[in-house]
Design a protein that fits this description.
Keywords: Membrane, Transmembrane, Transmembrane helix. With about 190 residues, this protein is mainly alpha-helical. It has one domain. It is about 60% helix and about 0% strand. It is elongated, with a radius of gyration of 25 Å.
């Protein structure tokens, strides 16, 4: 025969506050800073090369008919690619800083960007680049290796942001709840 407990079950206590940023959040920050630096180093160049490999041909600018108009069109296209690269670089820098501060919106935006990076990377890997008359050409080994290496950073970033300690860090909004508390005692004796 079942008898109810004498005292009602207590409300579970919230998990202890994290006093330090978890290593997984630090790893996600490092991955974002690495992607940030790669975008600075080779983002605009890679964007332009990819654009001209896939969808833009120099004959589209009609240099032979109107040289000035063709140069203006080319300059406008290059400007758009460079501005888009700068915007993505700034976004990665902001996200890396805000993830360390424990902002949930930064976690969500980073997850969405990393998922988009993975989807676009696999699409580029399996669709192949359109060069001349070869649409959807077979993937060669070097492209496969470099694409998989490039996709490892967004994948590691995602894995780091989905851990329990990272979620608790974002749930408690980083170090915000600790601002009114006294500083923790050092775990070592000073000399």
């Amino acid at each position: 025969m079942y008898t109810p407990p004498a005292t009602p079950p207590s409300t579970p206590l919230p998990p202890d506050l994290l006093l330090r940023k978890p290593g997984t959040v630090t790893a996600a920050q490092v991955m974002l800073w690495l992607q940030f630096s790669f975008l600075i180093c080779c983002g605009a160049g890679t964007g332009l090369v990819g654009l001209f490999w896939t969808s833009v041909d120099f004959s589209d600018f009609a240099f032979d008919q109107d040289l000035t108009g063709g140069i203006e069109d080319l300059a406008a296209l290059v400007t758009v690619v460079i501005v888009a690269t700068i915007a993505v670089v700034v976004l990665y820098g902001i996200l890396a800083v805000k993830i360390g501060a424990g902002r949930r919106w930064a976690q969500v935006v980073t997850i969405l960007i990393m998922l988009a990076s993975i989807v676009i990377g696999f699409f580029g890997l399996y669709a192949g680049f359109r060069t001349e008359d070869e649409a959807g050409a077979a993937v060669d080994g070097s492209r496969l290796i470099w694409t998989l290496l490039g996709l490892s950073m967004p994948l590691v970033t995602l894995l780091c942001l989905f851990t329990g300690s990272a979620n608790q860090w974002f749930r408690q909004r980083g170090r915000d709840p600790l601002k009114g508390m006294p500083a923790p005692a050092p775990q070592y004796r000073p000399y």
